Amino acid sequence: MKKAVWSGLTAFVGVLALASSVSAQTTGNINVQVNVNARAKLSIGGTGTITFADADPDVVGTFNSGPIALDVKARTPFNAPVSLTVQANGDFANGSATIDLSTLQFTVVGAGFQAGASDKDNPVTVGSWTGSGDHTGTHTYTLPNSWSYATGTYSVQLNYTLVTP
User: Fold this and answer.
1) Residues 62, 67, 68, 73: is their CA dihedral positive or negative?
2) Which residues have a Cβ under 8 Å from the Cβ of 116 and sit 6 or more positions away?
3) How far apart are CA 17 and CA 13, in angstroms?
4) Which segments within the chain are labelled E, that is strand?
5) Cα–Cα nearest to 74, from 66, 82, 85
6) Among residues 86, 161, 83, 163, which one has the least CA distance to residue 129?
């Protein structure tokens, strides 16, 4: 009979030990932080050169560049303005001969992009958005083809600027 008592007592102590280890619990915390800095990135598709090939003005009244891909990426403070502008460094020039830059027009496709005319004195808005994002679109330039142009190769540089706070 003594043997049965010791077996029962051993089983009781084993269950008690098991119950106390199951109820032990501890917790810990990890704080997670991410740093997000302001960034801006502009990608202009193509070769970086638009070439309008010579054509008879009676047949081709307007030169067209074809679509040029624009990719504007910006990380800004919440609801901060983002704008893309373009400004030329002068009129089209060929020695002393010029073509008025304001005749170089552009159309756009894409949300937030804006059509307009080129300007050598002031930046012209090509697109504007609010807050961070990735905005893609296309830009197509047109230039009237005229009998009044002096012969030669004309050029102008267009400077794009992406502005974020």
Assistant:
1) positive
2) 105, 106, 124, 125, 126
3) 6
4) 39-44, 62-64, 68-75, 81-88, 92-94, 97-99, 105-109, 116-117, 124-130, 133-144, 158-163
5) 82
6) 83
Q: Which stretches of the chain score pLDDT less than 50?
A: 5-6, 8-9, 11-13, 15-17
* Alpha-carbon gap, residue 20 to 125, rounded angstroms: 72
- The secondary structure of the chain in percent helix, strand, coil, rounded to multiples of 5, reads 15, 40, 45
Residue ranges per structural domain of the chain: 39-163
- pLDDT at res. 6: 47
Q: For 39-163, which CATH class?
A: mainly beta
What are the C-alpha distances in Å from 36 to residues 30, 33, 132, 135? 19, 10, 11, 19
Q: Is residue 12 packed enough to be buried (19+ CB in 10 Å), middle (13-18) or exposed (0-12)?
A: exposed
d(CA 147, CA 144): 10
Token pair in block for residue 41: 């990135």
pLDDT at site 20:
52
